[in-house]
Amino acid sequence: QNKRRILKKMRAVIFVLFFTCSLAALPQCQKDMLGMIFDAKDIGTFITTYVNSGHGLNQLGNMGICNNTPGKKFVRLEFGASELDFGLCGPASCSVSDYETLKPTLVSLSAKAGGKFQLLMENATFSSPATEANFSGIPAGGWVMISFLIVMFLLCVAGAVTEYLMIQNFKTKAKFRFSTYVSAMEAQNGYLEIEEQTPVNSDTTEEEWQRIESNFSNEYMLRCMRVYNNMYPYQRFLLHFSLLSNGYSLTSSRPNEDKALSIFNGIRVLSICWVMAGHCFSTTTTGSLVNLEYTKSLINNYPFLMISNGSFSVDTFFFLSGLLAAYVITKKLACVCVRTAAQSVPLAYLHRYLRLTPVMLVVIMVSWKVVPYLGDGQLWNGTTDIYLSNHACGDNWWRNILYINNLNGRHGSNDCLPQLWYTGADMQMFLLVPLMVMLYVTVHKLVAVFAIVAVCVASWVHIWVLSVNNDYGAFLVQPDSQQFDYYVSPLCRVSVYMIGMLIGFAYYEHKVNGRFSGFTDAVKKNARLRWVFYLAGFGLMQFIVFCVWPLAHDYGSQWGKQTTAAYLAFSRPGFVIALSMIMLPAVLGKGSFLRALLDNYLMGILSRLSYALYLVHVTVLIIFWSALDYGWTVSYLNNFYLALGVILTSTLIATLLYLFVEM
Asked: What is the DSSP letter of 199?
């Protein structure tokens, strides 16, 4: 009843608003206000004002129709940090400062209602929404980024044209003569892969050429040309940007990829979709919502825990990063001398930095310097100011490229693109991988295992102490310190990464040295044992995600301090252990259904886009949310369509990033 009473009073505000404004505004604004209210001949204009204004909390009105009506201008009334607002369609002669002058009058009127209504009016502010894209306001940095993207596009197109012409010349035998065999060993150097050695020279008959063209792709032919160095320098330069080669890299299978581990491609894709869906749902439950009561009940629903308690999706990335990094680096360093292995450590750091940083920097600069000037809407200025403004990106972008943005203390909420805390944490934990591998291959394997276990124990103790001393919550993030000191902290996430490393070492021992063959043979041969792993892993995973249901149902309640500390310390390691149990039979070649679902051509392509997807999806979501001209109605169907649109749009942008920048 209280909320209904507030809604009725908010409707009355629209009528009172223009009258009080006419008493305090500037002369022209006063004249237009009085004429609109008291001129019977202008009743149509008054109706237009009422219809296109909001009629209640978070009903934003119709900005487009209002601004397109002669003599009208739209303004937005915001109620401080309460995330409540509505729109007003008033005279075009009235500025935001004119409306601000009526605030004392509105506060005095709302004092009669008292309670929450008076508090809302005391915190009310007026703003003028962005009515059109401000291309002229793009700063110099924005034009630099636009120029850079244009240059990259032209280079990629020129590279593709060059590659195509060289392939055609190769086919016609006009410029290339071959007198030696092309060795399959050159495939390891990135040149080509063939099953048999094929002699090709200028005397090759047309029938032989047709057979070669049917057996080998354009990629094969181009790599043949690269072997023989018959290129001009500009051709070599342009081929590095070729869309044809980049597209081949995205869509082709990789011969050196471990087929058993390729099942994790699907896990990576499902996890990034979980992340994007979670961000879409969480964003729409904190903005300008029309159905506040339903939103509250939705958050307390049992199925919604997959979203509200879905941060475990990020832990799968930490786990996979640790597993794959440990396995790949161990495989490379185990067959070299100690000195060479030691020299490879800084190169591993440099390689990872150069692989991840350029595309991230492009996303940051475009999101910061270009995106805020490309759109309009009632929420545009306010939302982009939070995530993409000079305050957020201008002060903190350098933290991102140094990968220390998650170490920003209490200022973490002001980071540029808040999802990039993950890149910082992942890079910081990767610093341990080459060091642990060095211990593993040069000192003793048990020393490395002991060091990893010690890091895990230290992390769990750290989480336990933080949780008990700061009264953390098990469901969602309760005090602000939990976001910065626990959720984004590498000290609290590192145990998941270390578990991934342990499993990577174990897989290396099994794959290369044949260890654990008794256990793996039992899993392969015993279907019941495989089902034990499936059911135990799935059950543990469901328990970890949904055991907080009582806290979600009775929001605000909490477990005891020790129980909460135990959950925060061990739930994330438990989740990735459960995932490992489910995936074990599939990695060993069993579980045909899982392998068909997770290890296929489409999953292989999408998994290569997962990093770019993670970088861009929040910007896509911000653009959509900022461009809204109406309050959002939360429902499973609406939010599903939103998440689907964000995922598809982000996939398209991520593909362009992969083709033009990341490769």
From this structure: -
What pTM value is reported for the model? 0.82
Residue whose token pair is 């793996």: 520
Q: How far apart are CA 294 and CA 216, in angstroms?
A: 59
Size (the chain), residues: 663
pLDDT digit string (tens) for 24-58? 555 677 777 666 665 545 556 666 666 667 666 66
* Rounded Cα–Cα distance for residues 530 and 145 (Å): 52
| 534 Cβ neighbours under 8 A, 6+ residues apart | 581, 582, 585
With a CB cutoff of 8 Å and minimum separation 6, the contacts of 381 are: 127, 129, 130
φ, ψ at 201 (rounded to 5°): -145, -175
Q: What is the pLDDT of residues 260-269, one digit of tens each?
A: 888 999 999 9
What are the Cα distances from residue 464, in Å, to 2, 498, 566, 573, 592? 42, 18, 7, 14, 40
Please give the average per-residue pLDDT across 306-317, as a whole number: 89
Indicate the residue type of 236.
R
- Round to whole Å and give the CA distance between 404 and 402: 6
Query: Distance (Å, rounded) from C-alpha 365 to C-alpha 362?
Result: 5
Query: Is residue 252 helix, strand or coil?
Result: coil
Phi-psi region of 608 (alpha: psi -120 to 50; beta: other; left: phi over 0): alpha
Packing angle between helix 264-284 and helix 312-333, nearest 10 degrees? 150
Distance CA 559, CA 541 (A): 20
Please, which residues bridge with residue 289 across strands?
A: 632
